[in-house]
TrEMBL record:
<keyword id="KW-1133">Transmembrane helix</keyword>
<feature type="transmembrane region" description="Helical">
    <location>
        <begin position="343"/>
        <end position="373"/>
    </location>
</feature>
<feature type="transmembrane region" description="Helical">
    <location>
        <begin position="298"/>
        <end position="322"/>
    </location>
</feature>
<dbReference type="InterPro" id="IPR003838">
    <property type="entry name" value="ABC3_permease_C"/>
</dbReference>
<keyword id="KW-0812">Transmembrane</keyword>
<dbReference type="InterPro" id="IPR038766">
    <property type="entry name" value="Membrane_comp_ABC_pdt"/>
</dbReference>
<feature type="transmembrane region" description="Helical">
    <location>
        <begin position="393"/>
        <end position="417"/>
    </location>
</feature>
<feature type="domain" description="ABC3 transporter permease C-terminal">
    <location>
        <begin position="303"/>
        <end position="421"/>
    </location>
</feature>
<feature type="transmembrane region" description="Helical">
    <location>
        <begin position="815"/>
        <end position="834"/>
    </location>
</feature>
<feature type="transmembrane region" description="Helical">
    <location>
        <begin position="438"/>
        <end position="459"/>
    </location>
</feature>
<feature type="transmembrane region" description="Helical">
    <location>
        <begin position="868"/>
        <end position="890"/>
    </location>
</feature>
<feature type="transmembrane region" description="Helical">
    <location>
        <begin position="910"/>
        <end position="939"/>
    </location>
</feature>
<keyword id="KW-1003">Cell membrane</keyword>
<feature type="transmembrane region" description="Helical">
    <location>
        <begin position="513"/>
        <end position="533"/>
    </location>
</feature>
<feature type="transmembrane region" description="Helical">
    <location>
        <begin position="471"/>
        <end position="492"/>
    </location>
</feature>
<feature type="region of interest" description="Disordered">
    <location>
        <begin position="82"/>
        <end position="102"/>
    </location>
</feature>
<dbReference type="Pfam" id="PF02687">
    <property type="entry name" value="FtsX"/>
</dbReference>
Amino acid sequence: MSVLSGWRAAFRMARRDAVRTKGRSALVVAMIALPVLGVTAADLTYRSALPTEAEELTAELGSADARFSSTSMGPVKLQQMPDGVNWGTPEGAPEPSPEVQAKPVDVPAAFPEGSRYLTERSVPASVTTRHGIADTEIGELRVADPMMRGRVELTDGAYPRARDEIAATTAFAEASGLSIGDTVTVRGPEQTYILTGTVELPADLRADSLYALPGSVIAPWQQAADRDKAILPPQPSDPTWLVKGPPGAGVTWQDILAANERGVVVKSRQVALDPPPDSEVPMSALSNGYSTEVETTAAVLTVAAMAVLEIVLLAGPAFAVGARRSRRQLGLVGACGGSRGQVRAVVLAGGAVLGGAGAVAGVGAGFGLTALFRPMIEDYTGSRFGELTVRPWEILGIAALGLATGVLAALAPAIVAGRQSVLESLTGRRGTRRGSRVLPVVGVIAIAAGVAVAVYGGVAGDTAFVAGGSVLAELGVLACIPVIVGILGRLGRRLPLTPRIALRDAARNRGRTAPAVAAVMAAVAGSVAIATYTSSSAAEQAYDHVPNMTPGTLALAAADTGADAGLPRSRAAVEQNYPVSGKAADFGRVWAGSDCSVYYQDENDCGELQFVKPTGEGHSCPLKGEGAKELALRLSADGHKRTMNSPACMDENYTMVAFGTGEHKIVIGGPDVLDTYVKLDDPAAAKALDEGTPVLLNSAYAKNGEVTLKATHTYSDRDTENRAGHPGKARTTTDRLKVYVAPDRYAATPGIRMVMPRQTAENLGLHVEDYGSFYTLGRDATDAERQAAYAALDQAGNKAYLMASDEELRTEDDTILLILALFAGVVTLGAAAITTGLSKADAEADLTTLSAVGAPPGLRRSLSGFQCLVVAGTGVLLGTAAGLVPAIALRLTDLRAALAEMRADPMQSAYTPIVMPWGTLALLALVVPVLAGLLAAALTGSRQTLARRAG
């Protein structure tokens, strides 16, 4: 018999065996198809969501051929790169004079003859909404023109075609509550427009803007400002021109060179897609020669290798069980003169048949799911797919990967089947085989070596060593899994019947159990590694975060000096629309020297109040000056944080100006400011304020309970204009002002360093003015509440502005952790379900015997549950341990970088914590295994009909 005919017979037997054992075959096909499905869907999504250069140009230009724009250089000769991004004057050319730069550039004169064009400008504006007022950007662009297709698309209604019409992006319409037909008013000039439709930018679905016809917003606004000086003139962007070149010609490189002669920069679709040779580009390109292609290729190969390993680990036991259940058939092949190679060929052919079926099913399902979930993916990524991009060779490679993994998964069972004697195969005996004693030793050595290499890579800052060591350690754990499973079998001696049988069955059938545990471990390890690194990085960011205000508070501050008369109405606007709780705490501002407007001019020109910090221990920051670097490196992370937060260092590294207090951070207020904003619950401090004694929050400025305030002009002597407007020296310098010093932990209060009673400031000869209020928020305000509050402030005269405490930092990180946990949980459930199904198929004779001797009907159900629990729980625990290795090593890399920054600046923190994602771990270690066991038990039939004697 020829080799070809032998394989033909093997494939025929494999096909018939697959049809005969439909349940096991479907299980194997599903296991191969699922990863293929995932990789296919990921490839299609990545290739479709990642815009090509042509799609990026469409998102920027629409269907236009080019974008023309002027520069700040004036009508001088320029040079540019073909990408239209990098440009400059020719090398050696003199710098254009201010007079030349002020000259306008005649951009339309640079268009190719026979071109058609659109103009585009945008302006920031405040507009009315259904809820109140919102800030947005209005683009003056004829979006109805066919030249805009691909960049702006209509989703509902109609494009604006008259000067009193406007269109909104879908995101803006949803946030503002506006509907088609509503009126939109641009505040300032009070121009009204009818909302005729909603549009979307396919490249930016979250865009928040409005579109009107050219000349319908900016020009009338400017005219209104010219007539009424109370109206602020618009501040539009520089115009650009979208050009459609002559039919069939487009905008060529020669057109660009001609435009550069006039001082015009051009981005051409034709040139960007087919750039000219370097010899024709006057401006030479500077390239750093760095390419991420090698790193990307390595990452893709690593992911592909892990996918192959995952499939082999999951599907391998199914082929092993199938080979054992077909051992009589395989024995007959040998009894009829078949060689060991032919026996192996039958098993390998089964892998090829099922692998091919799984590959085809996975690729087909990947296409279907990508098309089905495409709208959801586009909403999540914030951009539309240009088209469903299919790269045939990549899809064929993925299918070949599924086929190859099916064959690889059948390789080990084929070798075992080929080694079995014909007598054992015909009689059904399994024989005995001792576990390898060498493999666990090799595994322990690999674990130790992998951890050492990963740690070295982390300390040295080499991520290649981190990755290599982590993989080596994980392979070492894989080698130890059979021994671990065997040890688990011995732990069941004192357990009830079903968990004892489950543990012993897992230990007795390690060839089936160990790969499934390994598959769970591999999936969990990756998720735990990413989750640990993500949660640790988020903790580091939260640790270094400097809040702009006390958490959960809102500040209302006057927009300018002399605006205090309108504060009562502004306060009412806030209290009626924001979710405030409790009473407002009013505060004022204080300054010295000449009266002037701090809104339009630097407050320093008004005579700034400054704290004069005493010298000596407790007043000078130890992380500044001589010996600071050595001290910073000696301190622990917590010690460095405490030093940074100490009063002496608090204002050395970061200064935040808030609520019009200036850099001196002194506010006028009473005990209610301490209670509402500072959160200082101290009767002695409140009493001090009532008695006229200021409360100092930063003790570094005090000496013997007294501070020195210095009022001085800080502009330079050359600044004659400011000196003429505010002549003379500052009026007041206060030495040794008695204060009440708050505990050191209040030195970090955002925006405030001292609370001074009004009467005390007036007695010192300082200027005092009511300036705003602090509020405690019961919850975060919604978009509708903010817009309503802005509208109410506008009705109150628009004499005040709002500042709210910044939001939490970890919302996106929490989402990432949840996705990782769900991914690992799905793989865990799948692997556990596979092993449970194989266990039932492999131990059918044992279950039949148990039923025959009187085992209760629920035994099968509970046994399936515990078998599933054993696989899931063991894999999760091992995966958690394996996943910590790369996470810790990568954090060591971050620590190395942070220490380098600290050596350069001792004020920089080197805090790089390792934070366990306990929520993710709890979900994986507790919820998922228990859920897997319960599902297995629920889906298993409790009764079995004995059709004949087993065996």
